[in-house]
Amino acid sequence: MEVSNYREPIYSPDEIDLHEGQIIEDLKSSAVEPIPDPDAWLEQEDVKRNLVLTTADWVINWARRSALWPAICFPACCAFEFIAVNGPRFDLSRFGMEILRASPRQADLMITAGTLTWKMAPNVKRIYDQMPEPKWVIAMGACGISGGIFRSSYNVVPGYNKIIPVDVYVPGCPPRPEALIHAIQMLQKKIAKSHPVPDLKQLTGKEPM
Amino acid sequence: MTVAIAANDLGAALEEKLPGSVLKAEGDTLCITPESLLDVMTYLKDTPGQEYDYFNYVTAVDFYDHFELVYRLTSTVHNTTVGVKAQLPGRENLSIASVTPLWLGADFQEREIYDLFGISFEGHYNLRRIFLWEGYDGHPLRKDFNR
């Protein structure tokens, strides 16, 4: 009996290419306006704080901010500054985040270190979508903020905030390791201000029992 | 140090073997007709005494009224190097023979030229866009490309 290992491919390479191109074109046409930061309201002064809820908030926030694990998503040269930060000299493990997660499902921070091209953009968005909530994004370097010197190029995404919401921006080309550590500290301060426990009064409009 | 050969002698030898293929031979560069590209390359690779077995690069230049393909070959046997140029007139439906049957290293470079200049290579086994996605409008390294 003759056994053949050959199997007809379901899709031809041309069809796969066209599908990929369609994904990129769709993302490009939908990514015109920057996505606003959903946590921007934290910066407002008149955010009400409840004493009991605040304490629960504080504990959860402490746990969240003290072990930020970054996903591996370093498309370009800023990655080397991140490697320096992660190394013994600048020692990111002081902040409980020396573990780089190869799987985005175990990560809660994305450090977008580098220029993003449109061909890579769907993959970065997929990595972001695969990360579990709560998740945060640091836009690292000029390219991550606005596209940098490649902003007017035909194939570069003009800023990560066109495809994913960004929490903290770090300027520099590339930023110094100290700047990145400062940005991480800023993010930790931001997380400390958030409310993981929902405010019942806000949710229901009634006073809690 | 690799020696850049005098193209005059090589041009004369080629003219004897393949009449009408060489348009100009000066410096270390042969200017040939695009139709004779594969024959000339086969000659340069397989003839004893030439044996250009290493393919350095292929690239393209936009001169508005024509495109020029620039090849550079090196012989690791004789430690010599030679350049080959072929001009394609016009801007639409450009086509030239692929050299992937001779040197597989030309594969990605020809795909890059196909992607960014819009020149197709006949005989390439996998001629698809390499940097940009399928459906992208235009060829960015052309001088008249506008975003």
Topology:
The complex is a heterodimer of chains A (209) and B (147).
Chain A: H1 13-30, H2 51-66, E1 70-71, H3 78-86, E2 109-113, H4 121-130, E3 136-140, H5 141-146, E4 168-170, H6 177-192, H7 200-204
Parallel strand pairs in A: 1-2, 2-3, 3-4
Chain B: E1 3-4, H1 7-17, E2 22-26, E3 29-32, H2 37-46, E4 54-62, E5 66-75, E6 80-89, E7 94-97, H3 106-117, E8 119-122
Parallel strand pairs in B: 1-6, 3-6, 7-8
Antiparallel strand pairs in B: 2-3, 4-5, 5-6
Please provide a written account of the structure.
The complex is a heterodimer of chains A (209) and B (147). Helices cover 38% and strands 7% of the residues of chain A. With 209 residues, chain A is of the alpha/beta class. Chain A is globular, with a radius of gyration of 21 Å. Chain A starts with 12 loop residues before the first helix and ends in a 5-residue tail after the last helix. Chain B has 147 residues and is of the alpha/beta class. Chain B has a domain at 3-93: NADH:ubiquinone oxidoreductase Nqo5 subunit (Beta Polymerase, domain 2, 2-Layer Sandwich), CATH 3.30.460. Chain B is 22% helix and 33% strand. Chain B contains three helices and eight strands. Chain B has helices at residues 7-17, 37-46, 106-117, and strands spanning 3-4, 22-26, 29-32, 54-62, 66-75, 80-89, 94-97, 119-122. In chain B, strands 1, 2, 3, 4, 5 and 6 form a six-stranded mixed sheet that branches. The longest helix of chain B is centred in the last third of the chain and has 12 residues, at 106-117. Chain B is globular, with a radius of gyration of 16 Å. The chains are: A alpha/beta (209), B alpha/beta (147). At the A-B interface, helix 1 of A face loops of B.
